[in-house]
Amino acid sequence: MTDIKQEFKKFLPRFQENVVLKNYSTFHIGGKARYFLKAENETELKLAIQKALDLNIDFRILGGGSNTLINSQGFNGLVIIYKNNPQPKDFMPVKINEDYFVEAEADWPLHFLVNESAEAGFSGLEWAVGIPGSVGGAINGNAGAFGIAIGDILETINVLEIKNGIVFENVYNKQDCEFEYRKSIFKNNKNLIILSAKIILKRSKPEDIKNKIAENLARRQNHIPTGFSIGSIFKNYTGEIDLEKHPELNDFVDRGAIPAGYLIEQCGLKGKVIGGAKISDKHANFIINTGKANSKDVLELINLIKNEVRKKFNIELEEEIKFI
């Protein structure tokens, strides 16, 4: 019988077993991973994935721990944390023609990218202030705010691709990534793992950038709740609307989307509690872990929200978050 631990430790000495995942989640929810590894570089990440494939072990990649609900019963496979601590020297934009590009690693926290670009006098990331998680996670779900998404400012993405049991590196152009609202070719596709991305920036005055960041942060803080959460649970709704039956939704026609938080609030669900999970009083598209929530509590709230919105508006909300 194959000794899984020894097979991994031959090449990856930081390999562990039965590690509690809630400590790696912004939700502070999650059971134990049967196998666990912190990969500190691309070589270790590639080696860990290939070894998991060779041993027929299911695996998941976890970055900043936001936007992902981890099962409180745990994960019977390998969870790989791909994360290091970037330094200001790592932020080095290069000029190509009239544009500047920075090669951002997937595991960089978004706040690092926002802060360093502002300090260096590069514009293009002001919208991302206050968004938790990593660059890779943001690309995966095409994260955005204030009418801008990260897919809008990407040039190329370096990925690990899995095909026929083999892991190899590949480069995707922006058009290959199938970016849509909170969606990309990478989302829920464990055969494509983002390594880094070339991000387009513009030269600007640092004080102008910092002022815009401060303005955006103030706007976010006015409606983003505090506490343990994983961000917005549902995508805003962009489908058809029955305006004859629901004329109150007419105000959203020109916007192109109905905020999920509005639909949930109109169902009277703000403040609803199941177990240790609560629909935020401040923003109904956020679920807060009040301290003792488990994944079952959160899933019951998610199902309640979907059922109530469906009954009231005949609208099917779609989750923005991922599941492990």
Secondary structure class reads alpha+beta
Distance between the termini: 27 Å
What does the largest sheet look like? 6 strands, antiparallel
Unreliable stretches: none
The portion of residues assigned to helices is 10-25%
State the total count of DSSP E strands. 17
Gross morphology is: globular
User: From N to C, what is the helix and strand string?
Assistant: HEEHEEEEEHEHEEEEEHHEEEHE
What's the average pLDDT?
Answer: 92
Can you count the helices?
7
Radius of gyration: 21 Å
Measured by DSSP, the beta-strand proportion falls in: 25-35%
Overall description:
With 324 residues, the protein is of the alpha+beta class. It is built from 7 helices and 17 strands. The chain is globular and about 65 Å long. The two termini are 27 Å apart.
Short description:
The protein is an alpha+beta fold and 324 residues long. Helix content is 25%, strand content 26%.
Q: Which labels suit this protein?
A:
single chain; 324 residues; alpha+beta; six-stranded antiparallel β-sheet; four-stranded mixed β-sheet; 7 helices; 17 strands; globular
Question: Which helices and strands, and how do they pair?
Answer:
Blueprint (H helix, E strand, L loop, with lengths): L3 H6 L6 E5 L11 E8 L2 H13 L4 E4 L5 E2 L5 E8 L11 E3 L2 E7 L4 H11 L1 E2 L11 H6 L3 E2 L2 E2 L4 E10 L2 E8 L18 E12 L2 H18 L36 H7 L6 E2 L2 E3 L7 E3 L5 H19 L8 E2 L1
Parallel strand pairs: 2-5, 3-5, 4-17
Antiparallel strand pairs: 1-2, 6-7, 7-13, 8-13, 9-10, 11-12, 11-13, 14-15, 15-16
